[in-house]
Every structure is written in C-alpha cells, then in structure tokens.
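ARCHIVE CARD
Drawer: 12
Card no.: 0347
Subject: one protein chain, sequence and derived structure
Cross-reference: see card 0346
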Amino acid sequence: MALKNYSPGPWKACHGGECSCGFIWSTPADHPVAKVESGEWGDDYPAVKIVPSEHRLTGTSFEVTAYMEQIGYGRIDPEVAQQNARLIALSPEMLTLLQQGLVLLTVEEINEWKNRVRILILP
C-alpha cells in the first residue's frame, strides 16, 4: 500500500515532547498532525443532576444542572505520553526508510534511533 496523502515531514513534537499540549506538527505544512494525550482517559458523556434549591422566582424546590461525566478506561503517565509524541514525530522518517528498503539497520543506526526516541532497550 503506497501512502500518498499525508502531511509532509519532518514532524516535530511540540518542545520535543515536553510540552503539555501534546501536539505533533508538520514543519513544512505548519499545522498539527496528531495530539498525544496523557492523564485519565475515557469517553465523556453529558449528565444531569437534581439538587435541592429554593428558587425565589420560580418557587421550585429543586434545580437541574447539566455537567459532563466520564467513563474512565485508564491513565497514561506524562512520561509515556512524551515518548509516544517523540515516536510519532519520527513517523515520516521511518516511512522514508521503509520505502527506500532500508529495513536492515546497522548498530550505529539503531543506536541513533534509540537516542532520538529515548527508549531504553534492555539487553
């Protein structure tokens, strides 16, 4: 499958992945291509609650308030989100290597990728 329509690289993680915004930008196109999330994550949905209240104007004894709830699925640590942002930002370069057939990497190239992405690979 040939990829043709995607934002051109290089992509950069905002402030090297350190920024809390989590955006990954296409440098030539000058727009975001992805957003990495951290913290609690899940599906948000609207909910209502009824609370006791003495409304002088309406004479009701309750008040309905709308708010957002979340079904939580888990948590992504900020350090993991930073690494995810750095890895996603390298996608155009990795795609270029794969398209050029450079799947066999030297030890030096592997070490360069490890340093750029900052992933510790256990021996």
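Annotation on reverse: The chain has two domains: 7-38+77-123, 39-74. The first strand starts at residue 11 and ends at 13.
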